[in-house]
């Protein structure tokens, strides 16, 4: 099975997406994939 991150980076390289932007997107995805409560959903816990 192919590595999804590698496939994305290959696609982004072909599209000219800068490495710094790729890294930021990957970090964002990894952060959102972590278990537990998220503060970026905009909901209220009240």
Structural features, described:
By secondary structure, the protein is mainly alpha-helical. The termini are far apart. The model has no long low-confidence stretch (mean pLDDT 88). 0% of the residues are buried. The longest helix is centred in the middle third of the chain and has 15 residues, at 19-33. The protein is built from two helices and no strands. It has helices spanning 4-15, 19-33.
Summarize the helices and strands and which ones pair or pack.
Elements: H1 4-15, H2 19-33
In short:
The chain is mostly helical and 46 residues long.
Number of helices: 2
Helix content: 55-70%
Spell out the helices and strands N to C.
Answer: HH
> Approximately what portion of the residues adopt beta-strand conformation?
under 5%
Spatial separation of the terminal alpha carbons = 43 Å
- On the 0 to 100 scale, the average pLDDT is 88
- Enumerate the spans where pLDDT stays under 50 for 5 or more consecutive residues: none
Strand count: 0
User: For the CA atoms, what is the radius of gyration?
Assistant: 14 Å
Biggest sheet details: none
Q: What structural class is derived from the secondary structure elements?
A: mainly alpha
Shape: elongated
Key structural traits:
mainly alpha
């Amino acid at each position: 099975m192919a590595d999804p991150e590698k496939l994305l980076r290959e696609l982004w390289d072909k599209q000219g997406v800068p490495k710094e932007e790729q890294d930021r997107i990957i970090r964002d995805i990894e952060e959102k994939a972590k278990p537990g409560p998220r503060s970026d959903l905009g909901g209220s816990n009240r």
